[in-house]
């Protein structure tokens, strides 16, 4: 187990596409454990493997109700819309309002390789979209809401500290 270095700002790896995971081995488990530890230390709610320099389709998310380990995740359903403030551990100080679906269902493998479905709304839906985007080299600054979208979807969340 260990803390890994978070890639930031203009690091070119953040724009690369991550590869499908086909080996569910010790190396993957170590990556998952290190990602969780790194995310919690940085006080984040999600982290993609590319952010610690590993181009593999692996994501960890914890929005306060426990760790989710998503391997080879894909969005299978989404609806609604939300415009809320979003940030990224790789883009410190650049928080901004994004346009995202309100409800998202993700299909992903767990560390045993078993496919599972995960549903989320609000913050969890944003986290799914944000972290899965990372696997294709897409950052939240590519998903910023327009004035019109913000007007149509006013924030439903209390300001967070
Ligand atoms: Ni991010």
Describe this structure in words.
- The chain is of the alpha+beta class.
- It has one domain: Peptide deformylase (Peptide Deformylase, Alpha-Beta Complex), CATH 3.90.45.
- It contains 3 helices and 7 strands; from the N terminus they run H-E-E-E-E-E-E-E-H-H.
- The chain has helices at 26-41, 123-134, 147-152; strands at residues 46-48, 58-61, 68-79, 82-86, 96-100, 103-109, 115-121.
- A 5-stranded antiparallel beta sheet has the order 1-2-3-6-7. Strands 4-5 form a two-stranded antiparallel ribbon.
- The chain is globular, with a radius of gyration of 15 Å.
- It starts with 25 loop residues before the first helix and ends in a 9-residue tail after the last helix.
- The mean pLDDT is 96.
- The site of nickel (II) ion (NI) has 5 residues, from helix 2.
What order do the helices and strands come in, and which of them pair?
Layout: H1 26-41, E1 46-48, E2 58-61, E3 68-79, E4 82-86, E5 96-100, E6 103-109, E7 115-121, H2 123-134, H3 147-152
Antiparallel strand pairs: 1-2, 2-3, 3-6, 4-5, 6-7
The structure holds nickel (II) ion (NI).
The number of distinct β-strands equals: 7
CATH superfamily: Peptide deformylase
What would CATH call the class? Alpha Beta
> Architecture, CATH level 2?
Alpha-Beta Complex
Side-by-side strand order of the widest sheet: 1-2-3-6-7
**What is the CATH fold-level name?**
Peptide Deformylase
Give a quick account of the main beta sheet: strands, pairing sense, barrel closure.
5 strands, antiparallel
